[in-house]
Amino acid sequence: MHSHSIKVLLDLPELNVCAIQKEKDQVLIEVTPIDSIQPCPVCASAQTIRRGTAYQRKVRHLAAFGKRVYLLLPAIRLTCKDCHAHFVWHYDCVAPKKRYTKAFEATLPKQAIGATIAHAARLSETPPTTVHRVVRQWMAVESARVQRRCAQQAKVSTGLVLGIDDFAIRKGHRYNTGLHDLRGGTFLDVIPGRTIAELQDYYQAQPIWQTLNPVAVVMDLAQGYHTFVKEMDPNAIRIADRFHVNRYVTDTLQTMRKQVQKSLSPCAKADLKQHFRILGKRHDQLTRDEMVSLKRLLGYAKLLRQVYEWKEAFIAWYDCSPSYSLAKKGYERWLAQGKAIDHPIVEICLKTMHNWQEEICNYHQLRFTNASVEGKNNKIKALQRRHYFTRNPECYKQHILLECNEEWIQYGYGS
Asked: Which domain of life is it from (predicted)?
């Protein structure tokens, strides 16, 4: 291959290829700068004198054909005629005193995001300390840029819909809250804690809340979130997340199933316990064999059949209500259907569903759910397991912002 073609592949226009040699698993490329003179970094004078080459710098570049590639850069000594400053030739492709080109360092974050530092170090055949240093420096800059872009998109968005949900740092003890732009599909920020006081402190400290003007906010049935949103954005529509509401009704069905089991024969009890997941699935998603099993399970108790039909009617109400006004009427009919069952377990569920009637019906004003939020929460859980958590809160936040907004990341050299 001609040296000109190799120069094009290297993508280093400031250098000329002089010689190439292969040593075991690495390729050494000897290069020289195209320019003969470099301006003085002190006074910017072009009147400089070359005083020979002190040594050769061995710099790691992008791999090629499964082998490590090193550039042999001459450390050319120069002297300025005007200010008499002494300096060494500066190359744009590599920072001073570094052993890796900027292009090579730009590939390390892409291998580390979604993985670990140790994994990225193995792939790149680079010391873990080097990967850690490069990735940490890149994360600090890139996470701030990504967050600014996501916040700007949310700020100028027409019909902004926010999603709020908590995720565990230590389950049962410490929690954070994620702020999401559902229409734009971005993760905006990590809010420390989930209590009203912690949310209010964040609201006062961070200007991002005050610049946003959401038309709706989707959240679960936690009273603290609804109270906070009602205080800070009274004009925003508060929507109860469909997943959490649906699960509340499904849990009621499973509680009823457990009570019915107590009065059945050992064989029927074992059958109902073994196939309990069939009761929780949507009826239109059951296979033919599951339909047969469902018919058998519902035949064990009339009460179980009534609650199952009540659960399916709720799913149909979510799917088939054509407008907000008709949805409110349909919801009243569904509440009446549950009341006709006349059982304490159902009554407990109905009390909650009646108290949150407005927020649940608001789904039919804007059909948004926190499905994407739950997906990002799973990413955060995987991140915490992969890194055995992160002690540094700033680094922890940067990881979350980058992994949950991966499509916004710029990995390229010089980006």
From this structure: Bacteria
